[in-house]
Design goal:
Radius of gyration: 19 Å
Strand content: under 5%
Helix content: over 70%
Number of strands: 0
Order of helices and strands: HHHHHHH
Shape: globular
Distance between the termini: 59 Å
């Protein structure tokens, strides 16, 4: 796979977003001692940051010594259980595993957004939290789009479209993740006003 300039730029942006979110969640886990924050923080840092860097380095033949390339390539995907597996087999297995996570995560996000919408109409939910479920679902759709384009590109199908869609999907996911965890103040005020209106209509 060839890394174009837009894809590299978006990769750096996504790396920064993933690192910021991962650190924030791990700091939260340190305070709360709860597993969800810990696991999500590790997922962003290990999978989205360390794994991505290893994957890029391993696919650049001039970056890593030859003996490092195969272990780093696999660690950048599924980790040590696949060491020694032929490269194409590892790629297909990794692609299937990557599809499963955003499909399930996106489905749950949109499902909970629908449930929260019902509670919101009754004044029983926070509009900002409700919107976060939607943003998370959008991020998963963007991730699925990027993965689909990546697989097509690897098989030599729709390569020109994939070259445009992969960075676009990556940027879309990065923006959705950022707003989910770091909503701008103006964005917060918009939903705070909606919460006030909802509460006043039920008093």
């Amino acid at each position: 796979m060839t890394y174009s300039v837009p894809l590299i730029v978006v990769g750096i942006v996504f790396l920064g977003v993933g690192t910021a979110i991962g650190v924030r969640l791990l700091l939260l886990a340190r305070r709360t001692r709860e597993a969800p924050e810990l696991l999500m923080g590790l997922a962003f840092l290990v999978g989205g940051c360390v794994g991505y860097v290893l994957e890029v380095l391993a696919q650049d033949g001039a970056t890593l010594p030859a003996d490092w390339a195969q272990p780093a390539w696999l660690l950048g995907r599924l980790g040590t259980p696949l060491l020694g597996v032929p490269e194409q087999v590892a790629f297909e297995a990794e692609s299937l595993a990557r599809f499963a996570a955003p499909i399930w995560s996106g489905y749950e996000a949109f499902r909970f957004h629908g449930l929260m919408q019902k509670r919101l109409h009754l004044g029983l939910a926070d509009p900002l939290v409700t919107n976060r479920f939607l943003l998370w679902g959008i991020a998963q759709v963007a991730a699925l789009t990027g993965l689909s384009m990546r697989v097509l590109d690897a098989h030599g199908v729709l390569t020109e479209i994939a070259a445009v869609m992969m960075p676009a999907a990556g940027l879309g996911a990065a923006i959705a993740y950022w707003v989910t965890f770091f909503p701008p103040e103006a964005y917060r005020r918009r939903f705070a006003a909606a919460l006030g209106e909802a509460q006043s209509s039920h008093t």
